[in-house]
Specification:
Layout: H1 2-13, H2 31-52, E1 56-57, E2 66-68, E3 74-76, E4 83-84, E5 92-93, H3 107-110, E6 112-113, H4 115-131, H5 147-156, H6 174-187, H7 198-206
Antiparallel strand pairs: 1-4, 2-3, 5-6
Protein name: non-specific serine/threonine protein kinase
Keywords: ATP-binding, Glycoprotein, Kinase, Leucine-rich repeat, Membrane, Nucleotide-binding, Receptor, Repeat, Serine/threonine-protein kinase, Transferase, Transmembrane, Transmembrane helix
Catalytic activity: L-seryl-[protein] + ATP = O-phospho-L-seryl-[protein] + ADP + H(+); L-threonyl-[protein] + ATP = O-phospho-L-threonyl-[protein] + ADP + H(+)
Length: 213
């Protein structure tokens, strides 16, 4: 905890015109899950707009490309890898790009970027919010697994409660956490045809209540 606090304090003092200013950091009680859920909902809305209005595939959805304002509203960033999908097209052919841990499994075989590929990457982001773990953990030994494989293993063993970050694990939030986990697992389905659209994802997330209201 001390090292985290020190790092946050240092970042808050780092102010420069070419740096993103750290607006805040929350580690208080149940507010931590409120904030994570709000971030997930906001990011899903932003991605749904890209997919629907300008027909853009982002191709690099990850936590570091989701910026927060002073109210913790999520804003998607970094469109350097984005591609416009022409009407009636289902994919764009492209080089294998993205960030390790977020790249959909089918991309390495087909080199075809799709909306459902973005959904997979967003599912990994949801897993990060739920677990507090990185998509690919740097570790040693035979038990080292990527986050997606680790989550599927825990589910197969009926040990879902071990998936959640201990800082947000709470009996009052058990139902909501399981709902978001279910959504995330649909997003990271290995078969892209079985993944939901981002419209479905944000609709499901919006049905999950924040706080006690």
């Amino acid at each position: 905890m001390g090292s985290v606090t020190t790092a946050v304090e240092a970042l808050s003092r780092a102010q420069h015109k070419n740096l993103v200013f750290l607006q805040g950091y929350c580690r208080y009680g149940k507010d931590r899950w409120d904030t994570r859920l709000k971030i997930a909902q906001g990011a899903a809305h932003g991605l749904a707009y890209l997919h629907k209005e300008p027909n853009i595939i982002h191709r690099d959805i990850k936590t570091s490309n989701i910026l927060l304002d002073d109210r913790f509203e999520a804003h998607l960033a970094d469109f350097g890898l984005s591609r416009l999908l022409c009407p009636y097209d289902t994919h764009v052919t492209t080089d294998l790009v993205g960030t390790l841990g977020y790249i959909p499994p089918e991309y390495s075989q087909t080199l075809a970027a799709t909306f459902r590929g973005d959904v997979y990457s967003f599912g990994v982001v949801l897993l990060e919010l739920l677990t507090g773990k990185r998509p690919v953990e740097v570790c040693k030994g035979w038990n080292c697994r990527d986050l997606v494989a680790w989550v599927f293993q825990k589910k197969s063993e009926k040990r879902e409660e071990e998936i959640f970050d201990s800082s947000i694990r709470d009996r009052d939030w058990g139902k909501q956490l399981m709902e978001v986990l279910g959504i995330a697992c649909k997003c990271i389905d290995q078969d892209p045809r079985r993944r939901p659209s981002i419209d479905e994802v944000f609709s499901w997330l919006d049905e999950i209540e924040i706080g006690n209201t």
